[in-house]
Amino acid sequence: MRAVTVIAVAVVLITLSVAPVWAHQPYFEEEDIIADAPLQVKDPTVSTAVYATLESSADVDYYTFGGRKGQSILLEITIPQIAGQELFAPEMALLGPGLAADRLPARVDGIPSAGSLLIPALTGPAAVFNEPFSRTSYWERQSQRVTLPADGRYIVAVWHGAGEVGRYVFVVGDTAASNAWNGQPVPGLAPAAKQGGDFVGRVIGARVLGKRPPERFVYRHLGSLATIGRKAAVVDFGFLKLRGATAWWFWGAVHVALLVGVRNRASVMLDWFWAYLTFRSGTRLITGGPAEEKTSTVGTRTDSVSPPLQVSPVPKLFPVTR
To answer: Looking at the structure, do residues 7 and 119 belong to the same domain, yes or no?
Structure first.
């Protein structure tokens, strides 16, 4: 009886669910970005791209943001694929508290009592980066992830060592964010992605039909579910909170109900039932070594069985990558 009640509540909540998220904030240099009026980056961890131009041999562009000690910030420069810019390679430097004191050109205005980190240009032929949304291609130049050594105000200066002029894109941050949850960032959860997909679908459908598309995305948080062990889970819908075996059955019912097609539901339920009977763990750990794989087939679905648990050193979380 309890299981039936749980499933019934789950079905009601699923029928009430609705749908939506996006990223990459673009800005364009409308006036020269000078030292006395640098372009303010609100959050240096959120993916932000500034499309700018070095207009003269003495031009230096400036960007500023507030940072916290320990923050990992991605700084990049890419060059739009425009004829004549194949070898255009601006220099870049980060200025702020706690940094070393790299030597910079006299025309770069520093911050009093602050250090500097030079991120030199990569000369020669560059790799090509294709941006899928705007269908634009860029040459990749320098890219470096910096861990801020102290709290305070930081400035990024961009110039060309030989005084060449040209267009470039300054990129800071590499995370996506949307403050569509009552003014707060949308959580990185599957329901947010599903709602975002539904929102994009409605926008595309409206444009195809010549109708007015929805103006903005609003994330609706329906609740949180998490399994934490064998017959152990937590459920929090605000008005309804469960834990233990009841929450575990609830979690399973919701996830099965959200699958597409009877065949998928039957396959997953059989797989879970067999895992429950055999105490098979579904945990997957990346240990850096080759995995020993076996296969267990349920219907037409093949799963990889993990090797015994291995204890490995924790890898660096922020390698210098794109």
So the answer is: no
Rounded Cα–Cα distance for residues 224 and 113 (Å): 48
Q: How far apart are CA 101 and CA 118, in angstroms?
A: 9
At residue 231, what is the residue type? K
pLDDT band at 68 (very low <50, low <70, confident <90, very high): very high
Domain total of the chain: 3
The span from the CA of 234 to the CA of 237, in Å, is: 10
Q: Whose CA is closest to 70, among 10, 130, 145, 172?
A: 145
CA distance 29 to 31: 6
Q: What is the pLDDT of residues 250-295, one digit of tens each?
A: 988 988 988 888 999 999 999 888 888 888 765 555 555 544 444 4
Residue 202 has pLDDT above 60, yes or no: yes
- pLDDT for 50: 92
Residue 303 lies in a domain: no
Domain co-membership, 163 together with 42: yes
Tell me the CATH number at 150.
2.60.120.380
Nearest Cα neighbor of 182 from 226, 225, 224, 216 is 216
Q: What pLDDT, in 10s, does the model give residues 145-156?
A: 999 999 999 999
The verdict on 8 and 47 lying in the same domain is: no
Question: Based on the domain organization, do 9 and 125 belong to the same domain?
Answer: no
